[in-house]
Amino acid sequence: xxxxxxxAALYKAATYLADGNVPQPKGNAPDALTGKxxxxxxxxxxxxxxxGVAGVLITGSMMAxxxxxGESSEHMSRLGMVLGGCVLVATAGPLIQFVFA
Length: 101
Description:
Blueprint: H1 3-18, H2 31-69, H3 75-100
Helix pairs in contact: 2-3
């Protein structure tokens, strides 16, 4: 295909979508499936939160022991990764809801 054919196809697709012809799928999931998926996602969110709290506690304990022993370690980078994971877990639901709602 030549470049002009690609440009023509791209122009046609852009004008089609710009005219408001974007498909809008409907959520037709069965209620039984929706309930099960909600339960699984709730358990996953709970587990992620629990893992985040455990990670902060473990990292804090390791930092306290390192200071007491006089060892220097890179616990701050580990704490940053744990806190980044906590932020990701906490914002996953609202972020996906914002994008797909």
